[in-house]
Amino acid sequence: xxxxxxxxxxxxxxxxxxxxxxxxxxxxxxxxxxxxxxxxxxxxxxxxxxxxxxxxxxxxxxxxxxxxxxxxxxxxxxxxxxxxxxxxxxxxxxxxxxxxxxxxxxxxxxxxxxxxxxxxxxxxxxxxxxxxxxxxxxxxxxxxxxxxxxxxxxxxxxxxxxxxxxxxxxxxxxxxxxxxxxxxxxxxxxxxxxxxxxxxxxxxxxxxxxxxxxxxxxxxxxxxxxxxxxxxxxxxxxxxxxxxxxxxxxxxxxxxxxxxxxxxxxxxxx
Length: 270
Description:
By secondary structure, this protein is α+β, with helices and mostly antiparallel strands. The chain is built from seven helices and nine strands, in the order ααααββββαββαββαβ. The chain crosses the membrane at residues 20-43, 63-87, 93-122. This is Small-conductance mechanosensitive channel. Homoheptamer.
């Protein structure tokens, strides 16, 4: 019995250096993990403050900070695992293969995601802007990571993929200080075009919403059966729709009152 105990103590003393070495590595790994975790949190907080100072969109800011934090923490965990003797080569290879497979399966979604990042980063438009893109015109309701939500003139909600927006022409009417609006109608060949011009231009005389420079204009285009009249005027982007509606009606009433023979009318805004 005594010999057996001596044998166990001998084995323990033989393992003691290895055990102490492993415990030392484990303690060091824990210290590295705690310190590294704190440093990563400090880095992400600092990045958040810099992004806020740079006026980066909150949606993009939160997403970028999450991605950076996750990547740094994943690298930290892999480094700590290698410190305690865990083989990480196979683990990294599996993660890489899984990431490649997921990326190939989600190509369309990733394209929309990348488009969302570009839109939020470079800000070609913002919430509240009136835009035309990919055959859709409306006011931007929200910009999400994968799609942009528009509200059109009929109050319908339109969902446009961000990949489409980032790879096509986008017309942002709200970024201009002024826009050209127009009203079109038809008059008879026998009507007096000079009188029509004077009547139509008088409509804008006391309207503070219509810019005086450039001045409103009236143009005439002969057609086979009648003359097309286009009344053009400049105004702020937000006033285009109400002013077009106002002067479509006012121009018809003014000309009919003076005996003009009107054809089919059409309203446009550019």
